[in-house]
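Posted in: Protein Modeling Q&A

I'm a second-year student putting together a small comparison for a lab meeting, and my supervisor asked me to include a predicted structure for MFS transporter. I've never done this before, so apologies if this is the wrong subforum. The sequence is pasted below exactly as I got it from our records. If anyone can share the structure token output, I'd also love a short note on what stands out.
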Amino acid sequence: MQKQKRFDWILLVILFSYFMILLDNSIIFTGTVKIAEDLHLNENTLSWVSSAYSLTFGGFLLVGGRAGDLFGRRRVFQIGLVIFGLGSFLVGAAQSAGVIIAARAFQGIGSAILAPTTLAILMDTYTGENRVRAIGYYGAMAGIGASVSLVIGGVFASLLTWRVGFFINVPIAAWMFYLSIRHLHKDTVQEGQLDWLGTLTSLFGMIALVYSIVGTVGQLYALIAAVILLGIFIFQEAKTKHPIMPLRLFADRERFGAYLGRFLYMGAMLGFWFITPQLMQNQLGFTPLMAGIAFFPLTIVNFIVALQVARLTKKLGNGGLLILGILLTFAGMFWISRFAPATGYWLGIALPMVVIGVGQGLSLSPFTASGVANTLGADAGAASGVVNVMHQIGGSIGLSILVAVEGLSKNAVTGFQHAILTGSALLFLALIAAIFLIMPGERHRQA
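Accepted answer (user: helix_wrangler)
Welcome! Here is the predicted structure, written out as tokens:
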């Protein structure tokens, strides 16, 4: 009984902490209008409320993952909770553009520490069937959290205030801190040292890369800087004895396929989550609250299906389940790309969302499992960092691509159709990665 009780509390800490990150990564989508009104922000300044978070989140992910390996996961996790909780409070209390942008950047650092550390703690804690089940819940949270946050954001923005969405993180972070002291294993610090050149080049290289996607001026220069810095980073990682991101992580066919597939998959999904609520408000007359609630078909089905992942993995295998999940997501996304106002919400959006929800529920957990497959304890944090980097950067790049495609058309509905069709193409490429990289890699591992 004691073992089961410990399992429940540790998993609660991991999932709640991860949910906080996902909540504030997407809740901004439905709260931007109210934030702009309250703080008198123009469109350019408002974009930085989201971009500042993305910059530091993407930039510090690899550092956050490696720090847990070297300095102890529980200690680093608790530091991340403090930073995230304080950052959330500052965002909620902000009264000016400068304060909210700086607070969002600070909050992003906390997220970058928590995201890979929670997954690494999971890998340290569970083995065998318990690990499969825990990864299933963790992967499901990636989809459920993003979907639910749209609903929560709509509720807060419409009925209360957008500030509640950030203030609520403070008591949750404090509770997680307390539970981490009570239930997480004491730290076992590994030998090694922090690769400072790799740390700095990865940090500023990732920030430059994200800025080249979300920035407003000088994106080309940022992209050039990102290529140079990340090139130095890769060279450094190849020769140092203590890499922040061991390149051997990419030598495994299954892991490489999982990183590539997750990058493409999240590119399609984040763009879908971003532009679909706008379509429902602009073309169907939905309020922000209604647009959030309209995601329930996806969210509920996702949750139900995700609970079955551990059982289905035994029957179909991780790779087989992933292929089925991506295929269903692709089918639902292609269906929704045929939307027209005359079709209406139920047939044009809700029913395709059900198919996408099933596919998403089946996909994200296997992606996570393959992304950390065959890793030694010393590499768990680094592998977890790469999983989250691909999740974050893939989402940012995919969102930018879909928004750009949508803007090419003067007709809003046609633009939406073309953007979602582009997302379908990304999902098709993710399916190819699963078939030709992940599936063979899994078979080789089991041989």
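A couple of things worth pointing out for your meeting: Residues 1-7 have pLDDT under 50 and may be disordered. Residues 2-194+242-446 form a domain with the Growth Hormone; Chain: A; fold (CATH 1.20.1250.20).
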